[in-house]
Write a structure and sequence with these properties.
Number of helices of chain B: 0
Strand content of chain A: over 45%
Order of helices and strands of chain A: EEEEEEEEEEEE
Shape of chain A: globular
Distance between the termini of chain A: 41 Å
Strand content of chain B: over 45%
Radius of gyration of chain A: 13 Å
Largest sheet of chain A: 6 strands, mixed
Number of helices of chain A: 0
Structural class of chain A: mainly beta
Oligomer: heterodimer
Largest sheet of chain B: 7 strands, mixed
Largest interface: A-B, 24 and 23 residues
Radius of gyration of chain B: 13 Å
Distance between the termini of chain B: 38 Å
Chain lengths: 112, 111
């Protein structure tokens, strides 16, 4: 079955450091891939998405590229801010499917 | 634009009491609807999803149930709460195969 594996946290960085959160997936078809972000006490928000191989999703300085050959969708940001402290979830959804498969989440702490 | 509402925002209930959490969506028709639970510091657990009025699929057998009495209304219920039911409950909607949009959540504490 489909699955998503992301790096365990927490990840602790200093402000302006480079961020990478690894995500790999297993899927039988050609899924869409997503990153969601959850700030403390809130619901999840879509951060970015990619719907086909080699697509790059980007938003708020975050980027992720859909790599079919390595079945990966790693999240990157060149310079993190304290306000980026949150939990990040990688996810996939099959076209026409009803369910989204979420990774376990990676907590990010950014220190001033 | 579409919006999703959940209430109440927080709830403290004694063990053995009933539960009713409500979720409504505005600005879209015939959405897929979902209930998730998130234990403290943990990931998302899909509880129920619905692809239409009266159609409910259960992912985890337990003392919770869900109903969809109207196209854009999704209700999570329990007849008798357990301590293990404590958590953060999230409602979400989507169009099949696309991103999900989440509500603000309900923090449930069972005492």
């Amino acid at each position: 079955g489909n699955s998503v594996t992301q790096m365990e946290g927490p990840v602790t960085l200093s402000e302006e450091a480079f961020l990478t959160i690894n995500c790999t997936y297993t899927a039988t078809g050609y899924p869409s891939l997503f990153w969601y972000v959850q700030y403390p006490g809130e619901g999840l928000q879509l951060l970015l998405k990619a719907t086909k191989a080699d697509d790059k999703g980007s938003n708020k300085g975050f980027e992720a590229t859909y790599r079919k050959e390595t079945t990966s969708f790693h999240l990157e940001k060149g310079s993190v801010q304290v306000s980026d402290s949150a939990v990040y979830f990688c996810a996939l959804s099959e076209a026409g499917g009803f369910k989204t498969i979420f990774g376990a989440g990676t907590r990010l702490f950014v220190k001033a | 634009s579409q919006t999703i509402h959940q209430w109440p925002a927080t709830l403290v209930q004694p063990v053995g009491s009933p539960l009713s959490l409500e979720c409504t969506v505005e600005g879209t028709s015939n959405p897929n609807l979902y209930w998730y639970r998130q234990a403290a510091g943990r990931g998302l657990q899909l509880l129920f999803y619905s692809v239409g009025i009266g159609q409910i699929s259960s992912e985890v057998p337990q003392n919770l149930s869900a109903s969809r009495p109207q196209d854009r209304q999704f209700i999570l219920s329990s007849k008798k709460l357990l301590l293990s039911d404590s958590g953060f409950y999230l409602c979400a909607w989507s169009v099949s195969g696309y991103e999900q949009y989440f509500g603000p959540g309900t923090r449930l504490t069972v005492t």
